[in-house]
Amino acid sequence: MAIIDRTTEKKITYSTALIASLILAARFRKYPEGFTGIMIPTSAGCALATLGVLMSGRIPVMINYSTDAEANVKYARQKCGFKTVIASRALLEKINCRQSCCSVLFTKEMKTTQR
Questions:
Q1: Rg (CA), the chain
Q2: For the domain that residue 107 is a member of, what is the CATH number?
Q3: Which of 3, 37, 68, 89 would disulfide-bridge 12, Cβ 3.0–4.6 Å?
Q4: Which domain holds residue 39?
Q5: Measured between alpha carbons, how far is 72 from 92 in angstroms, rounded to an integer?
Q6: pLDDT, position 50
Q7: In this structure, are residues 40 and 46 in contact, taking their beta carbons and an 8 Å threshold?
Q8: How many Å apart are CA 26 and CA 51, to the nearest integer?
């Protein structure tokens, strides 16, 4: 096993992780180069998103959502100059973060439009 996600109890093999990362990398290439924000809870999805960002030639910026997510996104944007943030819609709703604070690419939408 390459990844065992303790939150979802999913086990991801090396080949599945590679394929998922390559698919995500292809999607992330559609977004501006340079830095890309990632605001996803620690999980297999976060690991795969990070690998996908790296494989797309971009630099991942991990954003702390547990302490004022909006302020952290704004601060990271000022320092790194990125526009795209990969996040979970459920997370943004849970932490009461306005989606307007960032150009968000939602993880659930990536999963449902993979084909």
A1: 14
A2: 3.40.50.980
A3: 3
A4: 3-112
A5: 13
A6: 96
A7: yes
A8: 12
